[in-house]
Design a protein that fits this description.
homotetramer, Dihydrodipicolinate Reductase, domain 2, 9-stranded mixed beta sheet, alpha/beta, 9 helices, Rossmann fold, 2 domains
């Protein structure tokens, strides 16, 4: 039985508590939050759980084997590092850290101590996303050409991070999961419309070594909420619409056909193909439920998580590079290998 | 009565012929196309019109007062220049020319001769776009923050231009019409997935002198057709969906409210406001019908067209700069003043 | 402080418990369910509440002032009557009873004892529905012509009632709330496709004294879920789409204009008018929250609930008449005055 | 070469002319309309065609082998009968006649003379509808349970027919084409909201000998246009949305599974099955083009048309019975065998 301590009972923490409560092999022992009001709510809902305002009290509790960190980004590093140093496994909210340097240290610390470091990239545990990976792995899908995502809404301005760290982080984890290649450089643009506030709109283009390209559109000031991703390939194309209630994944039997222009050796004729559309059924279980079970499973069997520290670090590196390019109005910034 | 000659009877030419036929004050005299089969079709549909395969024959016909050029982009400059030199007014398909230098010469030639040079930026004559301009001009709209457009579909690969010149040209004309400011620099990214073919996907970010920013997403390899533009402001926001059959324009009473954080002089509190949505009725007349009437009206009264050569030139300059940035993977390129 | 006992902790009961827990002036004292497993769940979530498998134990608890009945329809009458006889106020799930006769007895019993009898017609407490009533009350709305609702999905076959009692009950309560007139007769059709099971698809037409008509389409075997109501009037029309995430209510400035045909005294010319569409903002609070507060408020001030026994009885009478007509393949059945 | 005469050049007639012009084996010889202005338009567009205001002049023209009747319903019978008596084949607009008696006489007259009588039920030649028939014919589709169609919009009030004859006629032809069974009785309800005008809203339920049922919702006073048909079966279900630009047909792998309740011999357990959704590609050619070609083909080979007089008669019989039921507020009316 894995004892779990959860630090942060704000927006996301309650989801972690609820799901770990329903996870076989786990028992929630401690909930920590600096705000007494939040702890009252936690205590009322989960009388069996100990509550505390002191993170170290949670981390050092002998009943706690693993710590879930669901606090603002700026505190991820300190809390996760303290937990690892106390010999506890860690599940940390995304983005893993506020920078690459911090991320690398966490990964090293976990490796040195033989502890599990997992990042809560929830999308990767969603039935729809897994179904997309399954489809893309098939021969019939062909080669990927592009990934183009729009993730906009009238959203809360974050205090410590801009819209890239808040929203594009989702697409970076999905791209890391779905695409066989990793991005090598990024050009980002955007703007901060409110004086003294971080960028609220941004557009990111990621280049890859082959002729693959990715684009992410994030916006905190959109009148409508959109969560739409196009994945284009030479044989098939996918639309992933996360707001559709039942058919989030649509696969289009569309693409181009290339033939040599009979009148010239130098040019290629481009033809079109449009066939059926297909919306596959997929696993409906709540993603966080599957993720909590996967975390416990990794701890019990000593296996590596799908969304481990290395992946979390790649995502942070991409965010950091995008931020740097944004500051320079689209100038290309290379990602670390 | 204005005699009209139309050069090019391919995809768009027939629309010009049909609309000029129904325009008071205009009479279609000549239709020109290099392909005899196209001329047969034109002759069958419009027995009163003379057909010819020779553009100069059309341009020099004394019955022709104005020439409409609906040929591929690469021939716009030569044909329009020849028409102007023959003393004919010109309506040229968009983009006006394949480059800024050519565009400037056309504008100068028309000015020197006192002839009308108009560009067929059809969107500007669409009831929905005019309604948007009307709404944005009202006090209650506030300041514009951004223009963000997605214009993608499974489209024909053009031979002589890339996806920017084919699709982004629409947004550049709409932006020129709607936004009080003109863009000063552009960062563009994209990719050519088919060897030997122009770029089929591109993303453009335009910077303005104030804190306004614009983004355009164009793609010839999208499984679904999207024509959606978000226009965000501090008081209201607009969604323009050109594919909606009846409610293309939706105005959202949404925005942010700023108050000084009482606990600090340095930060701003950002609040949200969500109110009604409103889809105004707008003029339903075919845009090209209004445009043809406007062209004739300008000729009769010697007035300047809304989509005149100067506007066409600004659009070409933006396209050229975007192309240059695309080649340099997002590096900022300034637009000519 | 009103002590509340809740009988039935299946699908809907937990929502009642949760909402009464958050209602000022109410305290949930007892939860009753025949299934021990359900009581375990209730006890785990609400340690302060007493649980019991015996409804009379709940009803007779001196700490219980009001009983909420959330059991299958067939048991509503017995439980509600027992509660009233024990001097307790009653909130009963819709439909109030399985027939008119039972319904009338409950209404009489509550009246005789001066107790509150309220029916849980949740839709009436929904912000969107209240906004529609507000709009229809305005002079500018004009006269109602029809109410036409489609309420279909792939739904669970009920054991004791057919699709009319399960789904049309919602529209009957909404019609009772929105329309100034009450229906006088009904023609219903439908079918039971599964042998030994109740009707799974039905279409109901209600006639009114004036030229108003209502239609309800209910179906347990639809591949897609639809919740769409059209309300037509002579000046404006409304579409209520309960599945839209943010714009459930759309008001269309559309209608007809009548003029006397100048060529004839006997005929009327019908013209059309299409203007703006408007999607008003509305109260977003959970309907059941407002309903629980209203129930407590009625008890505290001795006022009549909006969805009281008389209304519940009218709904049951309409359902019973529709059932009778359905059995006779559409033959008109009059409703009781 | 079949010489074609077209009577009626109002809303639909021009579509017939345009399509027969492009049909191999046919030549449009005469266009007839009582309004000189319409004939001017016809003559301008088709200089090779003779125009006349006299239907008999068209019918008796020796160059005319077949007559297409595109006039108001009330004149179909007289014109079609005159054409048949003159020895001409007939394509008549739907509904074929204003009543069963007239329809039977036309069918008999055509049979007696060995002439082709075809009704312009255009939907039957639409790629989407043919694809649906193909899918329903497959073993995997299973048995049909119901057909439920919504066909509403803000439509023109017709002068001589009510909304049933204007809109439900489409569904009756589609049902005749798709369903293996024919309806045996109908219950219809509806209302005329404008004094002196025909019914503008109606709901029709058709019963079949087996446990199949059909429902059609038609309305001339709807704020929004809807063209949606649900076809439910025990193994698969179809949604046909004629307003969708590209995916009009969606096939749902959904249905119910029946098992005997282990605890009882008398009841059936109903389970659910939800699988993939599939939107097949289908023929995109304009339906009327295919229909014109089919008409010519039938004449050339002496074969029977898919939408011949017998089918047209069944549709008229269903409309007449629905009208009778509507007058009696839903009372069941049997259809002639």
């Amino acid at each position: 039985m894995i004892g779990v301590g959860i630090i942060g009972f704000g927006y996301w923490g309650p989801n972690l508590v609820r799901n770990f409560f329903q996870t076989k092999g786990a028992r929630v022992r401690v909930v920590c939050d600096a705000r007494p009001g939040r702890l009252e709510t936690a205590a009322a809902g989960y009388p069996s759980v100990r509550v505390t305002t002191d993170p170290m009290d949670c981390i050092n509790d002998p009943a706690v084997d693993a710590v879930a960190v669901a606090t603002p980004v700026s505190s991820h590093y300190d809390l996760a590092l303290a937990a690892l140093r106390a010999g506890k496994h860690v599940l940390v909210e995304k983005p893993m850290t506020a920078g690459v340097e911090q991320g690398r240290r966490l990964v090293d610390e976990a490796a040195r101590r033989g502890l599990t470091l997992m990042v809560d990239h929830t999308f990767i545990y969603m039935g729809a996303v897994r179904k997309i990976k399954e489809i893309m792995a098939q021969e019939s899908f062909g080669d990927v050409y592009y990934y183009d995502s729009t993730r906009v809404n009238l959203g809360l301005f974050q205090h410590d991070v801009n819209v890239i760290w808040d929203l594009a982080v989702h697409d970076l984890s999905i791209m890391d999961f779905l695409l066989p290649q990793k991005p090598v450089a990024v050009s980002a643009t955007g703007m901060a419309h409110v004086p003294g506030r971080p960028e609220n709109v941004a557009w990111l283009t990621f280049y890859f070594q082959e002729n693959v390209v990715a684009h992410v559109n994030v916006n905190w000031l959109s009148p409508v909420k959109l969560r739409q991703t196009l994945i284009g390939g030479n044989k098939k194309m996918i639309v992933f619409d996360d707001l559709h209630s039942s058919e989030k994944v649509r696969v289009y039997d569309r693409g181009i056909t290339l033939t040599e222009d009979p009148e010239s050796m130098y040019t290629v004729m481009v033809g079109y193909r449009t066939g059926d559309m297909w919306a596959p059924a997929y696993e409906q279980t709540e993603a966080l439920r599957l993720e909590a079970a996967h975390f416990v499973d990794c701890l019990e069997h000593g296996t590596s998580p799908i969304t481990g520290g290395e992946m979390g670090l790649r995502v942070v590196a991409a965010l950091e590079a995008a931020d740097a390019s944004l500051k320079k109005r689209g100038q290309l910034v290379e990602l670390p290998r």
